[in-house]
Amino acid sequence: MLGTAAAVLGTALGLGWLLSRATTQVVNWFVMTDELFYERLAISVAQTGSLLPRLHGEVISNVNQLYPVLLSTVYGNGDVPASLVAAHRLNAYVMASAVIPVYLLTRHTGIGRLGGLWVGALAVAVPWIVLSSFLLTEVVAYPMFCWAVLAVTWATARRSELVDVLALAAIALSVLARTQFLLLVVVLALAVVGDALLEEAGRGSRGRELARRVATRLARTRRVLVAAALAGLLVLVGAAATGDVSRLLGSYAVTAEGIRLDLDLLQLAGEHVAVLALGTAILPFVLGVAWLLDRLRPSAPVAERALALVAVPTLVLFTFQVASFDQRFGAGLVKDRYLFYVLPVVLVALAAAVVLPRWPRSWTLVVPAVVCAIGFATVDLPTYEKLNVDSPLAMLNDELLRHATSVGWAHALLVLATAVSAGLLLEATVVLPRRAVAGAAAALATLALPGGAVYAFDRLFAVDGTNGLPITLDQGGVFNWIDRTVGADGRVAMVRSAVADADYWAGVAYWWDVEFWNESVVEDAVLGAGLPGPEPWVHEFDERTGVALRPDDARYVLVHGRDVRFRPAGAQVTFDRGAYLFDAERPRRAAWVTVGIYDDGWTRPHTAAGIRVFAEPGQRTPLQRFLTISLASPDRTDDRPVTISSNLERWEGAIPPETAVDRGATVCVAPGGFATVEIETPIVSAVHRDPTHAPLTGEIDRPAGVVLRSVALADEVEPLERCPAAGGG
To answer: Which residues partner with 129 through β-bridges?
Structure first.
């Protein structure tokens, strides 16, 4: 027993070590915003000690909290680059731990130790293991799913109240790993009822007598599950009474809305099955599923029947669940990332077909082959420049289309391969040696799955990541400059804004990097969120004093230099990567606020843009303030006339085409009020749409005057006797 345990644990650790050699080469993010989401949840747990899901200090509705809790063990020290490497190492060992439940499931089915180790190792060496390179719930969800399936199979076979409790607990933990696994509750119910039906049918019961005996049997032997079912029903009724059952799914509530049961869903489900089969080279998948179907009969041994009663509903229900999701949210394409969890039960069945004596009946071989053939006949075969995380197996499409020369011939080739596989298996029922065919299927899976895993990592490393940088290039020392500046205990609020003209994604990626690489960035100050008006950020501050109207706990404020909407009052700590870090005054206030502009800095047509400069707290005399304003024109051929005026001066000039001009301005600010520097131009041009509102159109149809590239207010002041009457204040 100890030797077996050591062998299983050694296999898991060995595979984890081998996998970590690849995952720790990934030193950058790849999947946004998923990785950022789970990292921030983990950082919250590490910083607060609370297991509740929090983002920017607010508790959110997220059920998938198991992975962030696990991830929090390597975060919290203020060194995100080191934490990321540690997380990828942890990912490898956690995902490789699936060896243990898969081994136990294989042994429970009646397969020997070597067969169990082979299946356990093969369940880890699958193409989807590449997901351990990212901060995604799949890392912990995969082994937890295997544990839950093991527990449900035990509960189906052993009919013990204690095991039933363990099965419910395992399902609950798996749901905390991934909300999708709530469907295992239905699998457990179907498996238990199916077991009772087959058992009583095997004793000759039929019709009403069969139903009565099954009900009596369940009431006597499954009291825990019956009670749990009644409790769950009450919860559903209560949620239905409030009109929002989907709310029980937390942040995944939307996935339960708009479900359609139609022929398109049936076809898409077949395509999902086909793609999953392709990952195993088709023949092993068909044989494994056929073996499971064959064991759905009263005469099958209890352990084998239990596996079939769990595996078949799991395959069917999860396939339709994922197909429905992809139909509504995935453009009708196969997203095998959400379905690969079911593969271990097929591998266990494949091992059973190799080792155990009874060969699947002919009809059970035909059913999965037909489903795969129908799926292959219509499945889309998209190609991607880099590894597609939602569809890792799509990496095979390039080579498939290259050899087949067209999509139509690729479909024909896949259907033919399925027909040949089914033919070999059917021949084994009458002519070919069954063990030889089963062994060939096992060998094929042993080559195809690890080969796919190696190819997945090769594709991952071959192309730059989503942020345009190689994922093996360590840039953490560049991006975590905020943590290095304020320390692990610093609290920073970042203010998102556009960082480049017309390049929306440059700004998006910039702020992803800011938050991902810096634990100290704990707040996301979205100016004007939920406020009306064309310039909602103005309403964030008292219109006379500039004092912030919303409370904020962060000591520091991070503002990009291209953000000309406002500037926080306080000492500038540093300027790095185009952004200013301020040690903000308390109470929080704005040194200046801009009106009459779009939120990306363009002035509105035929409207004077104004920069309101607020008086300092405790200011007793009028002060002259000095600004430097950088302006640019959208005109590529002619000068753009511009007027800059204040209560102290007026300047009229022109901005040359495609040139940025820096211009100084002075203004007198009276105590307790503000003064305004106005910028206006009589010329209007059509510029790109506001990237914060219409980022993906690329259309040129927004009227604007000039763009404010930056505004700088000097610390130096000069006392004046009085301010002229013009301007505010």
So the answer is: none
